[in-house]
Amino acid sequence: MKILRELCGWLVYIVIIVAITFLINTFVGQRTHVKGSSMEPHLSEGDNLIVDKISYRFRDPERYEIVVFPYQFESNTFYIKRIIGLPGERVQIIGGFIYIDGERLHEDYGLAVMESAGLAADPIQLMRDEYFVLGDNRNHSSDSRDPSVGVLNRSDLLGRAWLRIWPLNQFGVIPHE
What we know:
Largest sheet: 8 strands, antiparallel
Order of helices and strands: HEEEEEEEEEEEE
Helix content: 10-25%
Number of domains: 1
CATH superfamily: Umud Fragment, subunit A
Shape: elongated
CATH architecture: Ribbon
CATH class: Mainly Beta
Oligomer: single chain
Number of strands: 12
């Protein structure tokens, strides 16, 4: 009888731990890893990150934040990109540079002048809940310029990259500006 009581106690303990883990992973944060070079030099192949899934429940995403979203054509695949265009803005890439509402965006995240404007060769008018994202390694990134990614709806955003946990020598909060 004592063994059965102790076994039930352990079972309840395990169920509580699994439930808490599920709730945290679903609503608060999630671990993901970087695959590829599209966010270099800020994030590199093999970096492990914690994604903040709670911030966007209380505020809108902001320009230059690094966001994580699911890739629509492959399950369990997530993309990591930087928000460039916000809802209501008109985004276009001319001569390798980004223009927001006709004004050149001065930012230092891209590694080089973009060789391809892709979908943004023509102006893209973002609707109420749409975002335009780019990788920092602009000439080696599938992002909103690519038809397979396109503009993102707010509901597509899993969260923002918050904390780098691996490699340990780069452990820390990820700067967004």
